[in-house]
From TrEMBL:
Pfam families: DUF1801. It comes from Aquisalinus flavus. The keyword Kinase applies. The keyword Kinase applies. Residues 56-145 form the YdhG-like domain. Residues 13-30 have a biased composition (Polar residues). InterPro entries: YdhG-like. Residues 1-33 are annotated as: Disordered. This is Histidine kinase. One of its GO terms (molecular function) is kinase activity.
Length: 153
């Protein structure tokens, strides 16, 4: 897909990333994007995500928009969050070296639940390697997750 730093909204860049510099990539390639509410900080994170992870994040964001047209969005802790009510979140994204992780905050209630468990009983992870997105299953999980109350964070 080939996103460029020009696609990162200027207002959402940190002082270290202004004047044409690329946002800092943290461990695993996760972009360091200032926290913020709304689509703009999420799109800045997606634009800064490296290579195939950014391209995958574009597709994930599109599926969420399709399944939950009025989804609330924010960036917290350098990760995009998605919810149906501001302050209550059903999923988030995070880059790791070999995969993009989707966290479902009430993932144990999904049918079938994502396989990777957390130290928190209700949380489930879905790690997506390059080329590994099952769009039908993912869209189904998003629809189910959006119907749940969400996690207040």
């Amino acid at each position: 897909m080939g996103r460029t730093k020009d696609q990162i909204p200027e207002a959402k860049l940190t002082s270290s990333t202004k004047q044409g510099a690329t946002p800092t990539l943290l461990s695993g390639g996760n972009p360091q994007i200032p926290k913020g509410v709304g689509d703009a900080p999420v799109q800045a994170w997606i634009a800064a995500a490296p290579g195939w992870k950014g391209d995958l994040a574009v597709r994930i964001d599109a599926i969420i928009a399709e399944m939950v047209p009025d989804a609330e969005k924010a960036v917290k802790w350098n990760s995009p969050f998605y919810g149906v009510e501001q302050g209550r979140w059903f999923a988030s994204l995070h880059c790791y070296t070999k995969f993009l992780r989707v966290t479902f905050f009430d993932g144990s209630a999904l049918n079938p639940p994502p396989k990777k468990t957390s130290k928190y009983e209700r949380v489930r992870y879905h790690d997506i390697p390059e080329g590994g997105l099952d769009e039908a299953q993912f869209a189904d999980w998003i629809a189910q997750a959006a119907a749940l109350p969400g996690e207040k964070l």
